Every structure is written in C-alpha cells, then in structure tokens.
Records
---
Amino acid sequence: MRDIVKLEEKILNEGKVLPGDVLKVDCFLNHQLDVQFLLEIGKEIAMLYKNEPVNKILTIETSGIPIAFAAAQFMNVPVVFAKKDKSGNVPDNFYSSKVVSFTRKNEYDAIVSKDFLNNCDNVLVIDDFLAKGNALNGLMDIINQSGAKLCGCVVAIEKGFQGGGDQLRQSGIRVDSLALIDSMSADSLTFRK
Ligand code: 5GP
C-alpha cells in the first residue's frame, strides 16, 4: 500500500478534529512519533524530489523536524531547522522572518543562522501542516534573504480549505502535500483526489 494512502488512513483512524479547524495527530506526528511510518513518508518525499538538485532541507521547529529528518535519511542531505524566537531581538548573524502561528495565534520570528544557509544551497522546505501558508512563507522569505534556490515545499498534511497551498501554487511555487484535506468537521473528513 502506498504511504500516501496509509497517511490518509492514519488521519481517518487516529486524527481528531478540534474546534478552530485544528487537526490533532498527536499519536503519530505531533507528540508521539510513529518512527517506522515517518521513515516511509521520508522515502516518499525523497522519491518526489529525486530529480531535483536538493542539497539541504529547511524546516521549522518543532513538528517539522521528524519529517525533515526522515526525508534527509533517504536524500543524504543535512536538515536545518528554523527556531521560533519570541524575544524580539534577532541576533545579527541570523536571517529572520515574522510568522503568525496558526495554532497559537501569536507572532514569532523564525530565525536561521547565516552559517547554515547561503547562495550555494538548493533547498527543499518541509513542514508537518499547511494551513494559510504563513510558516512556509516565512521559510521561503529566509531562503530569499540567503540567496539560496528553492526547489519546492512538501507538507505531510495540507488543509486545502484554508487556501494557503493553492495561493503558493498560483504564484508558481511547487507544493506537494502527502494528504490534502478538502473538508473536515468533528464527524467527517474528506480528501481531495
Ligand atoms: P500555516 O502557517 O500554513 O497557517 O500553518 C502551518 C503551521 O501551523 C504548521 O507549522 C503547523 O505546525 C501548524 N498547524 C496548522 N494547522 C494545524 C493543524 O490543524 N494541526 C496541527 N497540529 N498543527 C497545525
């Protein structure tokens, strides 16, 4: 069975829809990690980008890291993860971009050391969820600041009804989601095919 199908099944069987259009997948992705399953997802991501010259993966703490790590295992590249800084004082040697958090509704600076991203890099961006696109836009802003080239973005779960993914695609960015939810409520969830 393809891993993408397994992800949809896991979402249906183990996910919980919370108020505020939040999907909780704590049992395999956001709190407890189903490592074997994440490695399968990583393999799928590596397949999707096998013809691209990716030499680095960029993600954001915390929940992007396990998926990025799993993909990196099969792509043989390092992972850089943006840190979330709430101090308001970004150190000089960091790229930074302001991001509004979907789940917490607050704003933070996504920061990445200039030591780990530069204009020689071809970057694949990976995150756990795509909702309105703020987190991915922040990461792509950081890539622009560094002069690196963006190869594309992969998310495990896109909530298509929140529009972020379609906006990015319309602006010419390659966005791959392993499960694309069209609609969800407490008792029903449908995927876009
Ligand atoms: P966006 O920035 O695209 O609006 O939201 C994506 C970010 O918010 C991701 O980094 C993810 O951590 C978080 N997020 C958005 N929607 C959900 C959701 O339904 N469930 C969980 N667990 N996280 C989400």
Note: Residues 22-23, 30, 60, 63, 102-103, 127-135, 164 surround guanosine-5'-monophosphate (CB under 6 Å).
---
Amino acid sequence: MSISITKGYVEVPTVYELDHPLAAHHLSILRDVGTSSPVFRNQVRLLAMLLAVKATEDLGLESVSVQTPLTRMEGKRITGRVAIVPILRAGLGLVEPVLELLPDAQVWHLGMYRDEATATPVEYYSKLPKDNPATVGFVLDPMLATGGSIGAAVNALQRWGVADVRVLSVIAAREGIDRFHAEHPNVRVYVAAIDNELNAHKFIVPGLGDAGDRIFNTVS
Ligand code: PRP
C-alpha cells in the first residue's frame, strides 16, 4: 500500500511534494525533451531553491544583535552545523542554489552510480568524517527512482551520527518513495513531483530522462 503524500503546508510531513504554481511551471520546462542543458541546469537551480525554502522552514535560530542605519534591534541567525551532501554527479546541480540560501553549510560529496544491470547503487567516493556530526544534513539528488542511491546516502549520514537527515530531490517514483519511507520512516523527503511509474529499466516515467546527462550535456 502506498503511503500518503502531503501536498501544501502541514507541520512536519515525512514526505512533502511541492504544491506550488512556480514548481509546476518550472517542472514542465525541466521535463521537456527539447529543453537545452543550460536551461535544464537553471530549472534544477530554481526547483532546488523552492525545495530548500520548504525543507529549512523549521531550522533552529538564535538571536543576534543588529545595528540598522536607524537603531539597534534583535535579529536572528541560523544555529547548528548544517551539512549538504550531493550525490555525484547529478546532485551537484542542487549544490550552488542550496549554498546560496545556506552559505555557511559544509559540503560533503558522495559518489554513486546506479549499476545498469541491477539498478543498485555503487559507491565510488565517500569522505564523510567519522566524528563531530552535523546537526542537520541535507542529501541532494534530483532523482529518486528505486530510492537505492538516496537510501545509501542517508545510511552514510546516519553512520556519521547525523540525527536529522533530510532529502531534497526533484522527481521521485512512487515505488521508490514507498520503499525509502519503509526503510527510513523518520527521514523527511522533499520532492517537486512524484511520478507513478518506474519502467522495466527502473527509469521514472514520465520523468525527465537522466538528470546527470541533461545537467552536464552528456546525453549520447
Ligand atoms: C541517477 C540519479 C540518482 C540515481 C537514482 O544517477 O541521479 O543518483 O540514478 O536511481 P535510484 O533511486 O534507483 O538509486 P546515475 O546512476 O545516473 O549517476 P549520475 O548522477 O552520475 O548520472
């Protein structure tokens, strides 16, 4: 049975699917096979920002004194150590927009590709530290198909000791979301769209093709 997906605002959903006209508009351009790599990259950037705004709405704040041109006032700043963890390659497309919003975040890279025959993730790069875990860690990957790659990244962050792991992904397959949620029921997932189908090759349908190839203009 599929889990229920939250659309729009609720307190703290476990799986959050963007329900916003800007998301719908920019997603349609992203999905279009005729969209060029430069435009595709920019659409990923815009959607990553929309996702990041939603995924960070309960981050901790502390007071900070601010001198405005007119007076002194009490302002706010983000507390805690924030880590963002892109899954190479395609996750790189979400790094810069998320860093714009969280400029003090640490960036840790994980290299994974999906084996074409088995559709299971193969890790080829990981340099996560062994101690001093971040307060909150955001896994970035534009695609959650079977959920294997993002699941492996979440496991790595949890082994590091990150208690609050969240996922930002642009397109997910319902099957992958269900599997991921069953394995990580307490990890929040923020996606722009959840598509109904994974085809025989475990590609998301209707989807957007291969995000890594489209971001880096390596479509063969
Ligand atoms: C794609 C995508 C995810 C993964 C999704 O990466 O960017 O990392 O597959 O599939 P899953 O949910 O079934 O694990 P790919 O293997 O194409 O590598 P790339 O980012 O280097 O293109």
Note: The longest strand covers residues 164-173.
---
Amino acid sequence: MSRLLYDESNIPDLKTLTAKCYDDPAVCKAEGDIKRIAVLTSGGDAPGMNAAIRGVVRCGLNAGFEVFGVTRGYHGLWKGEISPIGRRDVSEKLQRGGTFLMTARSKSFTTPEGVMRAAKMLEVYGIDALVVIGGDGSFKGARDLARLGFPVIGIPGTIDNDIASTEYTIGYDTSMNTAMEAIDKLRDTASSHERCSVIEVMGRRAGYIALNVGIATGAECILVPEVPFDFNKDVVRTILDGRNNGKHHYIVIVAEGVGSATEIAAKIEEATGVESRPTILGHLQRGGSPTLRDRTTASRMAIQAVNCLMEKRFNRIIVEQNAVITDIDIEQGLAMEKSIPEQEISDARRLF
Ligand code: F6P
C-alpha cells in the first residue's frame, strides 16, 4: 500500500498542510488494509511505557498485524532502526521502568526533510501505521507524519500529565509515588534538624506533580506555575506563622516551572532565619517499576490504539476522559489547552 502524499522532490512546508489533508479520502493513502504496524517511544521516558509497548505488540499480534519496533524514537525512525518484534520480546517487560525500545529527543525529525525521510523509512519497511508513545512534542511529530498521509496513533506517556486532551498520562502515578517517598524521607531529616526542606519536582511547565505530591506529603507551601504567588505573603509569612504556632520544620514543594529550589531555599533562609536546604529530585522521578495504575492504564490505552487500527480510525490520540479510555482526533487534541482546575487549588489551600 503506497501511502505518502509527497516525494522528496516535492517536500511540503509542514505548517501549510492542514488537518483536511488526511480527512480527505482523495489524499488519504490509508484506504488499503493495515497489515504491518510499528511502535516507538519518544521524548522523556515514563514508567509504564514498557507496558504500553507490550500491549500494542501482544494485542496487535492477536489482531493479526505484523508488529515492528522502532528503537530510539524518531531519531531511530529517521535512521531506519526498525525490526520485527514478537510476543516473547515483550516478556518480563511489564514491570520494568524506562522503555526497552529506548527513546530520544530528536532534532533531525523537526524539519520537513526529516519528517519526509522518516516517512520514507516506514515505506521502505512496508509499515502501514505507526503508534507513538510519548508527550505533546512526540504527538506533534506524529501529526506531521499524518499530514503527509501516513496513519498514526498517539498514546500519552509522560510523567508530567500535561497533555491537554487526556486526564491521565502514563507514568504520572509512579513519578508522584516516587517523589512522595523521597519527600517523606526528607521530612525525617528536616524535622531532626528543625530545617526547611525545599524540594524541586519535575513537570516541565505544569504543576500537576507538585500539587498532588504537596498534598500527599502535607507540605507547608506548594509553588506551581499555574498560580502566581507573593513570596513574602505566601512563603515567608506561612513559615513564620507556622513557627509561631509551634512548628519546627517545613516542607516547601517547588514545581520546576516556577524556578530553582536552590534560589528559593536561600531566599527563605535569608528572610526567615530558618536553616533551609534545597533538594532537586530530578530524573529519579522518571525511573522505577510502574505502579498498578500505570501498568493498567498503559495496557488499556494500548488496546484502544489497536482498536483504532482495526477499525481504521487513524490519526487519533488515546485519551482518558471522565475515567473512560477513548480516542480523539490528533489535530483537535493538540489544539486543546489544560490547566489545574481552580477547585483543586482552593481545596489544597484548605489543608494548610
Ligand atoms: O517531560 C518529562 C520531563 O521529565 C520533564 O518533567 C522535565 O522537564 C524534562 O522531561 C527533562 O528532560 P530531559 O530528560 O531531557 O532532561
């Protein structure tokens, strides 16, 4: 089945292609049967990605597809690192963190020429559709392939939970549990030394991890990019009020999108006189065996991805909406915006 809309002599400017491109049967090249599918992981790894790959492979094989794995994300695709993947290749992977297909943040894929080359690689291997497990950036890459006429499906995998179209992204629960356990330990030492522990958590530009981990660890202050704060009123005053009420140690959670824990700890110590120590949890939050929530969600999202392929519903993102796993159009999903609901923020304030 030939599926590309363009060849190298006529590489389009990806921005000028619209969603209409693949909706139009005259230009969509996916009229034929889907026989061969490929799966890749892209962007930052997230616990549960292996469960999602396993789901796509097992469920895809059960549906009668030949399944291929692409190593190193779009970079590997661009280089043609594509090979068949079987039932046994995904044994013993479900419980492992990271992604055994490996991942990358590909610069080579961000140009029209790069996308065209990746699409050509898929054609060389006779792949009919691609499943991309990753975050928003990875979905933009998938969308670019879709605009060239290549059928894609996106499965949301990122610890940040910052994909607008879905309530949940694979890896989010595990990373929050990892952060929570680390912060419980930091509380022990902060309490022994009567210190303020300032902990920076990941999340890129979003504060979902920070907010929930802050609630779960009983933090005195939670700083997230979505909510502007007044340092004197919301941080210094909170710590001083706590001290005047008999508190001896303090936990301050800082989402990485707000700023540096090191700088904030120094400012707190200067303003309050309370000895303060910064901790940046960093990539620790991306590792570890996935929780039940991540394993089951990843497996169910993989099943839904294969459902889309079987039903020839292409260019979809698998999402969780109102706790139900379903799928939406990739262009529509990428156009959506998401922020922490006001209610969740005001609820968190009531716990201090
Ligand atoms: O998107 C996942 C994430 O871990 C973010 O929370 C963080 O900002 C970023 O990736 C770190 O990226 P890298 O692994 O490239 O340092």
Note: The CA atoms of residues 215 and 351 lie 8 Å apart.
